[in-house]
Please model this.
Amino acid sequence: MKRMISSFLSAVILVAMCVPAIAADNSLNVNLQLGLERLEFIAYMDIDAVSEDMKEQILEARDAIIFNEAWVADGVRGYILDENGNVEEVVPQFSELFPVDWDMPEVVSQESAQEMDVDIPMVSTRSTWVDIWFNGSKSLSNPPTDTNSAAFCTGNTSGLVGTAYEYHYKTISTYGVYGNTSNEAYFNVGYANNSTGASLGWYPDIANGKSFAIDAPKNTTVAVRASTYSNVGSWVLNVTAYD
Model:
């Protein structure tokens, strides 16, 4: 489970994540910069040379910084796609952004979406090339500070393994729309291995109408979670797996 972020760290990271959705004045920018500098000072301390209490603060600060950046697990490729499905940005791998002694966050494993005690309009339309894992409305809220947002969708990247009809999906893509694509709005998407909790990728503040896609490992049940820092309410989400 992700460590609970202290009130100071939580406030700093919440303000940082809201910046794209607000017109920050100079005083806010100054306060934000001071807060992030303090956060980075703690995060980059030598964890082996401090007390146990300080170690926890260092780990909390690292979590806050990690979730303020977009990244994918080492060995996984990630992309931001525009409204037409074109690659707009290649997402860096975790080790390209953070020191070697920083641990990639683990995600609380979720039950498969079909078994979760929530109303999830799953769509099963698997063809040779495309599978729609989710297509419908979803109420997004701010992510909690003491755990992860619950997965709203899961699916396996392989099927009928060991048979003549075995198939593998290379790419998992999550698309979100708030109202319509002309609205300024932002949402977050995280992917994880549902069996182990290992993170596969995270992208905060995806612009309305765009998609975060990853090339996921074979024969992996992928859990998809979503949230927002700036536009709480009903979103239309689509999760698609394709070769």
